[in-house]
Amino acid sequence: MSSTVWRNWSRIESVTPARVAYPSSPDEVVQAIAAARADGLRVKPIGAGHSFTGIAVAPGVQLDLRNLQGVLAVDEQRHRVKLAAGTHLYRLPELLKPHGLALQNMGDIDAQTIAGATSTGTHGTGHAFGGLATQIVALTLATADGRVLEISENSNPELLDAARLGLGALGVLLDITVQCVPAFQLQAIEKPEPLAEVLAQWEQRALGADHFEFYWFPHTQTALTKTNTRLPMDAPRKPLGGFQRWMDDDFMSNTVFNWVCHVGKAAPALTPPINRLAQRLTNNREFTDVSTSVFTTKREVRFREMEYALPREEVPDVLRALDRLITQNGWRISFPVEVRVAAPDDIWLSTAHGRESGYVAIHRFFKEDPHTYFRLAEQIFRAHGGRPHWGKMHYQDASTLAPTYPRFGDFLAVRDKLDPERVFANDYLDRVLGA
Ligand SMILES: Cc1cc2nc3c(=O)[nH]c(=O)nc-3n(C[C@H](O)[C@H](O)[C@H](O)COP(=O)(O)OP(=O)(O)OC[C@H]3O[C@@H](n4cnc5c(N)ncnc54)[C@H](O)[C@@H]3O)c2cc1C
Predict the structure, then answer these.
(1) What is the tally of helices (H) and strands (E) in the chain?
(2) Residue 101: phi, psi to the nearest 5?
(3) pTM here?
């Protein structure tokens, strides 16, 4: 089918694919790969286009998996659910409800597809919880040579730790089996606290809750902390009222924040007082609701983002260094810095591979140039042993990334075996993995 221009969510990447295919069965995916190869074109499946990097850019054949969605099988005893790869995360509450199940942990939004989210290492927060890929126990992969590989603990197990976080470099995921948990609620406590105190007690705070995170607005000395505790479904539910939810999460976080960003761009000197005001207006709030409603929110103000995974203990020093960097350069930054944690895992290209991790994410409004801020912040992240999120902006390439991942060479060997002709490559993958 002929194609028009494709743009990612943050509007920093765009491409007009040679053609777009909308397969509606695994066989049609295999046929689309074969047809692309016959025409000398590369192939790239896309999810929801929510990566900030060019990882999903498809100049050849773009595979849009919107017709491969839904639940394919449920193992009620083991709480495992097999999903078609193009299933959007926002559909999961409705799809999992009849089975009384939920995802163990989630990031900030639910716009992504299950395949797109796991492929870049999407994660939430929680010292005892890994990213989405750690919850994946099996998958099916269509490879460049037309094979369909079942990958699980029992079938091609040596490929699981490469394929569940594969950057889209190994083939097209057709389905994904997720280890779910019984549905649960979260009690959320959100409040402003002195940044210096939160940093001084960082390890205690990170380890002292199921899911701890905080936001720091540059030009203020306040951290907006979020502490979530897991509760069973039969605990009393105390959701935010409809009006309060709209006021805080829609009007303040999207409508007013959009206005703040536009004012900050037109008159940067206003950003510090606006940030201080925003932080004073932030509510103390406490509520209990089903997990998905607490983990995820709507993000309607477009931005660009860089996020680095660090050894967890490095987080306070990195925040202090970022504060100095912003002050010394006289920048006016309207977007907050977000800080989260995750458990170590064994997945080869996971940013949390082999270490307790803290995540620090920096943002810029999409109408402002992010590069100077991001490049200098990246020097701080790298000096503290950071690894960049594969779906968020960074300036590294294979030569600098390889030494930070003990299993990088093993991943490249699997790639050489499964995709020797680089059917699934694009410029971003050439940069971060090598051509
Ligand atoms: C507003 C916003 C909030 C975010 N919040 C978080 C967060 O809280 N935590 C976090 O870690 N990240 C977060 N991200 C980043 C986001 O989760 C990742 O970039 C994610 O990969 C995007 O998923 P997607 O479905 O849009 O995939 P895309 O960006 O479209 O694609 C990502 C990769 O997946 C590959 N892919 C897609 N489908 C398949 C398939 N079937 N088989 C093989 N490969 C496939 C693509 O080829 C590409 O390589 C956020 C992004 C935005 C814009």
Answers:
(1) 15, 20
(2) -120, 165
(3) 0.94
Residues 137, 42 contacting (CB under 8 angstroms) = no
> Running DSSP on this structure, what letter comes out for residue 255?
I
* Interval 214-239: pLDDT, tens: 999 999 999 999 999 999 999 999 99
Long-range contacts of 426-431 (CB under 8 A, 24+ apart): 426/42, 426/44, 426/54, 426/55, 426/57, 426/58, 426/59, 427/54, 427/57, 428/53, 428/54, 428/55, 428/57, 429/55, 429/167, 429/168, 429/169, 431/397, 431/398
Residue closest via CA to ligand 1's atom 12 equals 122
Residue 366 CA from chain centroid, whole number: 18
- Which residue's CA is the nearest one to ligand 1's atom 50? 50
Residue 416 CB neighbours (<10 A) = 10
**Is residue 310 classed exposed, middle or buried when 0-12, 13-18 and 19+ CB atoms within 10 A define those classes?**
buried
Q: Which residues line ligand 1 (CB under 6 A)?
A: 9-10, 44-51, 55-56, 65, 85, 107-109, 112-113, 115-117, 119-120, 122-123, 167-168, 172-173, 299, 389, 391
Which amino acid, 310?
L
Confidence band (pLDDT; 50, 70, 90) for 244?
low
Q: Which residue is associated with the tokens 């000197």?
A: 269
Report the relative pairing of strands 172-179 and 211-216 from DSSP bridges: unpaired
Would you say 117 and 134 are in contact if contact means Cβ atoms under 8 Å apart?
Answer: no
CA distance 114 to 85: 6
Over 90: is that where the pLDDT of 290 sits?
yes
Backbone angles phi, psi at 342, to 5 degrees: -155, 160
Q: Give the Cα-Cα-Cα angle 4, 5, 8 (nearest 5 degrees).
A: 135
CA atoms within 13 A of residue 423's CA, in its CB half-sphere: 26
Q: Which residues, 6+ apart, have CB-to-CB distance to 348 below 8 Å?
A: 161, 162, 165, 405, 407, 408, 410, 411
Testing ligand 1's pocket by substitution, the residue of 22, 24, 29, 109 carrying the most ligand atoms inside 8 A of its CB is 109
